[in-house]
């Protein structure tokens, strides 16, 4: 297994490309319309608020990754904070599932934009079929090795960040900064509640920075470059998101943004930039979503392999040849493909919000409770991150309970099942105590934890 983790195989630029690849693929393309539906005409500010919450959240990951960069970063953080317990294993599995959910979200977005580009209505069996096809392609790229992922991520990141930013600038130049809001948004819960709920989706648009955390042991000079890559990726995405949000809001009234919420950028491109702009935007969307799926599968498969090595989740070869990493790649694409088939974009995004924010709160709490002095973290920042996550999660759950109680129930049952499963599994197969990061982490700088 160790040979599958190639130290120094990913540069700082590779790491930034992966982080922006996941974030931009899901965030601005799949979620703009959904955020606008909840936040109303203030939806660009939801991205700003999401960035603020993410900045507090990222602080914990940067501090932990600087101390113990690991190939299974989230699992490492949780086991350092809680030990090999049900809480650590359950929260780590929630994170892995939220990443798989992100893959299905982006895969369906790819299919939606492709069909719009072909002049077809994005509905029926074609959307999940195309999405599953993209997931299979991403599997093949990942199976080819780290350099294939790194080089493709670099190329696609440059194309899409530059292209989508250019779309935002051109849209603002053509339409000016103005909004023709059809309503104030917020659904049945009011403007403030709707805005807070939209921030939960905006946070989901930034969560791709954890992809960098999960590849920590493979990044060159990881004690410094993991944190740098996280900060750079978030900063790039804030600029791109704001440019595009203002451009979309300037090109279309709110009711049209909401009506075209699964392909809002393509819909906004034509009135601002003409038919050529429409096709260029579709092409950029396809590049962005494809690279997002590739980067996400790269990270989650390694996280699952790490959790397997740590004896926190079961593993079966199912008769397949190869290493554990080869098998976790297959598990990842199978689960992502199933979600792509059975859930629409709105419900996929909702599941991602619930799983990710619950896991995020558990990480901040565990680090604040046991590790903040050891890693030199400021306690008030960790507690603020918990409070902000809790506020937006409560607002999102309340609005979803009013509009789609089934997805809230599915999320609650799913999370309960994850923790129950881990409790039973660890009860029958106690995980060994000791180093949380095993053979796939770099030694911590000035680490005194083993004294």
TrEMBL record:
It is found in: Cell membrane. It comes from the Bacteria. Keywords: Cell membrane, Membrane, Transmembrane, Transmembrane helix. Pfam families: AA_permease_2. It is a multi-pass membrane protein. Its main location: membrane. The keyword rRNA-binding does not apply. The keyword Transmembrane helix applies. The chain crosses the membrane at residues 12-36, 42-62, 82-105, 125-145, 157-179, 191-209, 229-248, 278-305, 326-343, 349-368, 380-399, 405-426. PANTHER family: AMINO ACID TRANSPORTER-RELATED (PTHR42770), INNER MEMBRANE TRANSPORT PROTEIN YBAT (PTHR42770:SF11). This is Amino acid permease. It comes from Sinisalibacter lacisalsi. The lineage of its organism: Bacteria, Pseudomonadati, Pseudomonadota, Alphaproteobacteria, Rhodobacterales.
